[in-house]
């Protein structure tokens, strides 16, 4: 009984440290665990909606359930996972460069308010997809209901909760930029990981308030319908000023991670750090200027359509420069260590970004976009990025977080093989799903519809079957890393060292040299 009591007390004490972190690494854990929670929720919703897509005996009554699951999937991803993962990675990048979070309590409060507010909105059974387009998103009648459970004033409260969700995330992002400035040594340049993290924390702080404004507008329109009206076009402009950059909230900080980790496992310096740092300006500014390409099906002027194509391809050139820089780093090395789980995660993330990004290149071209805009081709493209660059790259950051939190951790040979196998088991099926989606979209399969021609049934069945095979892969990798972490944990490892144990960068004669710490 005493043993059980002691274990319970230890568990409670550790839980308190997670709920209310005491240092920068503790904040990383808080945001990473928040991300994993939303990943589980959105994944569960995805498998549910795929069940409805593949069940032969569906009735019309299944439609509302399907669209609610689709919205839960989208909101959990874009309003939960994305900001939590982005901020977690950004805080970790700051730590890896010797920066720290000064306003720890404020960042912690923003996390809890943001996530609990989103949970409140989701409990209302939203039915609008993550876009929340008017007027259906504020409808509350027998024909269409924006929420299955929240009606009248409660529907306005749900949008107010969403406004709190986005406002708190944007405040947290801005505070991280301030803290990075406050803790940066005057005579030292921050590493490339933190440079990308802080830059795109600023992008989050600038663009996310547009979503907050749109959500507050909905709240006012629902609570004061005689005084406030929603203009659909202005609302769409506000939404997409946020809605395009949000797709980069996680990938661009992960670009910094790729620039940081790939040279370590290539055992040579980054091919051109100058390219990498100048590229920040192109990616950060460009990501906020090309949102109008999401409105290609609107009756846009010809000159604006020309801007869409040119500006999108300019942003793509920044991504291409990243691929070139990292590719040359790997190709000019004496051998990349892909047998190390961390090395493999970032290699998969890079390759996944390439194969998913190539599919995006035709999309800004006006004649092509009109054909693929509302099809599974688009779904295939962005899910390839999500399943490889975002989720596998996120996994790599998580594995290094385990090492940082436990300096005694050194993955055993058996664990390394198991984690590498898990990464392959995840990647191969999900890359195949991405291409199945794209092919089906090219053939005419529309997205966001539950009723589709029978010719697409084999594609849908294949997607669901492969997902069932692939999901255990990532679970194996993460669970093995956690098991190794627990196995090697000792009381002496409860204090986190000032400098990360995995690697650091020295500047010798003006040239960055990557050193590994054994």
Automatic annotation (TrEMBL):
Which Gene3D superfamilies does this UniProt record tie to the protein? Cytochrome c oxidase-like, subunit I domain (1.20.210.10)
Keywords assigned by UniProt?
Answer: Electron transport, Heme, Iron, Membrane, Metal-binding, Oxidoreductase, Respiratory chain, Transmembrane, Transmembrane helix, Transport
> What stretches pass through the bilayer?
24-45, 65-94, 106-125, 157-178, 190-213, 233-263, 275-294, 306-330, 342-361, 381-402, 423-445, 465-486
- Protein name as catalogued: Quinol oxidase subunit I
Entry's Gene Ontology cellular component terms: membrane
Q: Which residues form the Cytochrome oxidase subunit I profile domain?
A: 11-518
Q: Which GO terms describe its molecular function?
A: cytochrome-c oxidase activity; heme binding; oxidoreductase activity
User: Which PANTHER family does this one have?
Assistant: CYTOCHROME C OXIDASE SUBUNIT 1 (PTHR10422)
| Organism in which the protein naturally occurs | Sulfurisphaera tokodaii (strain DSM 16993 / JCM 10545 / NBRC 100140 / 7)
Its GO biological process annotations read:
aerobic respiration; electron transport coupled proton transport; respiratory electron transport chain
Give the family, as the similarity comment puts it.
Answer: Belongs to the heme-copper respiratory oxidase family.
Q: Which gene encodes it?
A: soxB
Lineage of this protein's species?
Archaea, Thermoproteota, Thermoprotei, Sulfolobales, Sulfolobaceae
InterPro entries annotated for this entry?
A: Cyt_c_oxase-like_su1_dom, Cyt_c_oxase-like_su1_sf, Cyt_C_Oxase_1, Cyt_c_Oxase_su1_BS, Heme-copper_oxidase_sub1
Q: What class of enzyme is it?
A: oxidoreductase
Membrane topology of the entry? Multi-pass membrane protein
EC number in record: 1.9.3.-
Q: Where located?
A: Membrane
